[in-house]
Each structure stands twice: as structure tokens, then as C-alpha cells.
User: Fold these one by one.
Assistant:
Number 1:
Amino acid sequence: MPTHQPLLMNAPEGEKDRSKPDHFVVFTLDEQQYALPLSNVERIVRAVEITLLPKAPEIVLGVINVRGEIIPVVNIRKRFRLPEHEITLSDHLIIAQTSRLAVALLADRVGHVLDVPETEIISAKKILPAMDYVEGVVKLEDGLILIHDLEKFLSLEEERALERAMKGNIKKDK
């Protein structure tokens, strides 16, 4: 049975248990719950102004500056074909790390950390075979949670276009 834990926002590294693959950060888009493995999440911050990034893929809203690091903001609403909405002060940015780059995901709300036994995660290939960027599904009493696979979230083409846009538009101090 999945259990809920309070979410540690901006907690120091030592306070998070990143060793278990069955901990997930749950967030909401239009009342549907989604999740990311806790091991991918670096921090969660309130939404801030997003700077447009010319020549970035459509899925990228722009970039933000987090403690001196320029991070692309990915529009997960577009990926899931959800209606766009204006960014509000109550929205959150989930700063997450893939094996190749850091990204920020815009969410309506970020709820809690969910502890799910691996045996209760249904492989997405069984029910959503065309959605490569969904790793699994968890059934709860109040609905389903789709677990994202950040490694597959951006296509190779989108990732390369983002890299070109970042190199072409972001000047680094030397």
C-alpha cells in the first residue's frame, strides 16, 4: 500500500533518502496526479519569471536562473496535450536532473512524497505502450498517478535543438 510522506522543499542533501527507487514526488496538472522518482528531483521552488529562449524546441517554455545555473523549463502540459494556462504565483517548478541535463518542470501543485512498493507499480508498456516518457502507473483509492521517465521525456531531436539554443543564446561568464 502506498504511503504519503511530507515533502521536503529545498532540503539539504543529507535529509533526503535518495537511495530507494520507490519514492516519488507527486505533482498535479489540471487535477491529474503525476510523479517523478525522488532520486531525479533536486528541489522545488515557487514559479518565477521564465525568460524566452529563441530557437528552442516547442516543448521548452524558456529558461530560469537557479543559483547561477541556467535551467530550461519544459512544458509538460504540451507533452500530455493538456490545455495551456497562465503561470500563477501558486505554480511550482520542479528542478530535476536527467543523466544529461537539469530541467525545470512547471506544475500546478506539488503535493507529497509517495512511498510505493515496486510490486504496486504497473509498467506503462502494459497500458500506455505509445507513451515512452511514462514509466509506470500507480493505482490509488482516489485515482491513478502517472510516473514520468525523465530520461525519455525529451526526444533526441528536442534535446539537440535545446542544446543548440542554449549554446547560441546563453553567454557564460568566464
Number 2:
Amino acid sequence: MTSRFRGLTGLYKHQGPRAHGPGPSGASVGVTFHPFARLKDMEAETQRFTLGAVVLLHFLVSLVHGSVHDSAGVVLSGSAMLFVVVVILAGPLAGFAWMWKQPVAGARLIGVTMAGSLVFGLINHFIIAGADRIDHVAAHWRPMFTLTAASLAAIEVVGAVLGLAYRRTVTRGVS
């Protein structure tokens, strides 16, 4: 690879001779972009630390979002509250704790619970009309409610991807 790719080698993978133009030796070289290449190159400990940071951030933002729920008078049904406690709050924490004994299983639990949390949040905050949808929250609390709901969605995307990719990258290794 040429020097302009130095430092980005984790993002690009040499594919061998192709008709993409001459490489440094004059031969045709193919270089393909791999957006998850850096993730594949992460060591298991780095992935575990990153997942732990995502789980902690998710928990903290969830607590703030819950506080805004209470302040805005947005009450959840019993089944929704059970889902919040078991899947959204406890699930990622349990997955992270489980990672110390069985890393792949714990990471997978984090990924699955974050994906479930994401679906729940998207449906309740942005799709279904009800007290929990961002445009139905009291005007005074709407900015903070919207900010925490959107932040949770972003964190849950990252947590789901990292949790499920951990399983793939650790068990299969770097390709």
C-alpha cells in the first residue's frame, strides 16, 4: 500500500491484482474499503472495555430518561415497565457481568438486549401515538425527553452492533 494509506490499514484490505490502476510496483492492485475492519482488529479486552463503557453510558442515560418520564408525568403500563427493568436496565448489565465468565455469551446478551431496547424505544418514542411519544410529552419536558430518547437510540445501535460483532470477531478471528 502506498504511504497515503498508512494509518488506515485497518480500514482497507488488499485484494490482489485488479484493474483499479497501478500500485507501487506498477502492477494493478485492488483495495477495498471495510467499515468494520477496525472492529475485527480490536483485541478482546479492548472490545470488552468498549462494551462496558457503552453499557455504563446506556444505564446512566436510561436513568436520566426515566427521571424525565417521571417529571413529565409519562406513566408506563405494567408490562412496559417490566420490559424496561428486565431488558433495558438489567439486561445489558447482566450481559456485561456475564462477560467475565463467558465473554461471547455475555456480549451476545448485551447485543440482543440493546437491540430489543432499540426496537422498544423507536416504537414507543417515535412511532406509536401515546403519552410516551416525543411529540405528546408536555412541552416543558419535550426537549430533554427528545434528547434522552434519541441518545438512547444511538447508544443502543452501538451496543447492539458491538455486542453482536464481538461474538463474530472473537469466535472467527480476524479475516
Number 3:
Amino acid sequence: MDEPEDSPLEDGEEPPSTTNGDERLAHFTRLLLDDDEMTRWKAAEALGRTRDPSAVGPLIDTLWDDDARVRLKAAWALGMIGDPDALRPLQRLYRMENEDAQEIIQEALESIKRTMASR
């Protein structure tokens, strides 16, 4: 599967100019609802890289996105965050997806379990 470039922002879009992580988190959470699937993909990636547990709820909602790439990036992001609240939704998504997608989801599930074991 081809993945978009690494930047979680639209072409020409500047990141929120703030040191407040809450505003940055809110910015990327809003982008999860954008009409453009590439913007949603980039937002999910950015939220995963923050590893902020407050992104878990919006990312779980994104597991049911119409675009498979967005769903899988949300699964990846949840694995990066490592919050056990994502286990059941990821297990549900796993049963609904094809074999290639299941591999990514399985990696996210294993990442969460490793995080839980290390706490």
C-alpha cells in the first residue's frame, strides 16, 4: 500500500503556532473529520506521533472511516499510543478487514499489549 508523504499538514498549511499541546491535539482531532481522506490520514499519523492518550477516543471513532488507509493509520496511531481502551475496537476492526489490513491491526494490538506489560 502506498503511503502519503510524512507531513501531517495540508500543502501550505502551517502547524498551529502554539506551545499548548491541547490546541495542537484539537487541531489534528478536527482534521480527522475533514472531507479529504489524505488530510484525515495525516491527522491520524500526527496524533499517533504525539502519543497523547487524549487522542484515543477520536482515533477509535476513525477506525470506522470510509477509507481503508485512514482506518489503518488510525489503528497504527492507537498502537503508538498504547492505551488499552483501544483493544476491543481494534479486535472488532480486525474481524472486519482483509488479511493485509489484519497484519497492521495485529501489530497495533501487540504494541498496546507490550505497553500494558511494561507499566
